[in-house]
Amino acid sequence: MRNLLVVGLLVMALVLAQFAQGQTIDEVVKKHEDARGGKDKLIGLKSVYMEGARQMMGNEVTVRVTKEQGKLFRTEFEMGAGNGFTLMTDKEGWMMFSMRSTTPSQLPAEAVASMQPELDIAGPLVDYVAKGHKAELLGKDSVNGITCFKIKLTTNAGKEILYWLDAGTYLLYQSSQKTAGRRQGGEVETFTIYTDYKAVDGIQIAHTIETKSAGGGVGNGTATFDKVELNKPVDPKLYKPE
Fold first, then answer.
1. Residues contacting 60, CB < 8 A, separation 6+
2. So where are the chain's domains?
3. SS3 state at 127
4. Structure-derived torsion over alpha carbons of residues 38, 40, 44, 48, reported in degrees to the nearest 10
5. How far apart, in Å, are the Cα atoms of 182 and each of 73, 190, 218, 224?
6. b/e 180-194 (16+ beta carbons within 10 angstroms → b)
7. Quick check: 165 and 28 in contact, CB under 8 A?
8. Looking at the whole model, is its pTM more than 0.70?
9. How distant is the alpha carbon of residue 209 from its chain centre?
10. Spelled out in words, what is the top-level CATH class assigned to the domain 23-239?
11. 56-97: pLDDT as tens digits
12. How far is Cα 229 from Cα 66, in angstroms, rounded to an integer?
């Protein structure tokens, strides 16, 4: 009887020890996908259009973001008499800021390669195994007082992205990645914070997005979107650097 009691206590201790280790990466990602609306809905996204206002360089500008799955990521903005855009496809990238130049400049190949994860509308973390990526749960971390699961994802191209998922909602709160700068050989780390989630066609979308990079510049700021549309046809003209 005593031996059975000892064995029972050992089994309980092992179970508690395993529970204390927390959830696995796949369990956390599954809850993240479910919190956003479900993996099937997310991987079925074909396009997204977002329109709103952004604080940039002390000014409020109108901003429009268009993505077509695996093909296009375009951001356009208007600031008084000035306007500009960044355009990224699976093959090339362009940038234009009229207050500096009205002629679009082509981005270096390194910058285009580093920005390819932006073409994935659902995000590389969703269905990451099928996409050939690798993910590692680094434990929990606190960001701005919010307890988060910290995840390191390595894409099939070798790019590393860090994600912080709110441990309470399993929605993405912050991401971080290093991208190639416009100068050859340079890298810039950018942090993005996602808040104000609202359901659009059954999918949770962050309507406020703050971007911060160590290098500063026009990329820094907070955008608040009041219009979000999913799976609408994309105008072929948006693929042109104009």
1. 53, 54
2. 23-239
3. coil
4. 0
5. 17, 14, 13, 27
6. bbeeeeeebebbbbb
7. yes
8. yes
9. 10
10. mainly beta
11. 767 789 999 999 999 999 999 988 767 899 999 999 999 998
12. 10
